[in-house]
Amino acid sequence: xxxxxxxxxxxxxxxxxxxxxxxxKDSGMSTERDTLKAKSGKYALLCxxxxxxxxxxxxxxxxxxxxxxxxxxSASYFIGSCEGKVRVxxxxxxxxENGKVIRYMFPEGDASPGKWHEMKLEFYPxxxxxxxxxxxxxxxxxxxxxxxxxxxxxxxxxxxxxxxGAAVMMNNNTLTLWKEAPYLKVPQAxxx
Length: 192
Prior knowledge:
Elements: E1 12-18, E2 21-22, E3 30-34, E4 44-49, E5 54-60, E6 71-95, E7 101-105, E8 108-109, E9 116-123, E10 131-153, E11 167-171, E12 176-179
Antiparallel strand pairs: 1-2, 1-5, 3-4, 4-10, 5-10, 6-7, 6-8, 6-9, 6-10, 11-12
């Protein structure tokens, strides 16, 4: 539901915070589905904060994970209005099977208002990872629309005709000589 077209909020939860503490219901902070600035589809998530030291924290905790795969996380956002210092940042947390943190990654986003931005990070989870969680922080006095949150496995495109520039030039009992395409590295496995 990263495009916010469905009102169900199963994959994530949002915590409004002021000075690192949970915000009171009457703090003026809000998050809601909105149609004014959707990047794709009809809806985006509008996060509003009237306080400079406030953060709308979007947590994605129920993320699928497979060992040995490369992953991509991306989120599009539009800062409509802001005052003072604002920040759009994130945290990717890698957990082991015992619930201990192995490592963090901290992507940062552009905080200039008036246009769509994309925060994007590609990564290989470190060895021992059993679970991944992602947090987005929208900090400062601002109005921001978030849309098209994506998390998934990166499928590498294979190079078509990748061996077109490579050829064996000479092959005998003592020597094999070949030329290779400039973009292709010969694997060391099996080469004496």
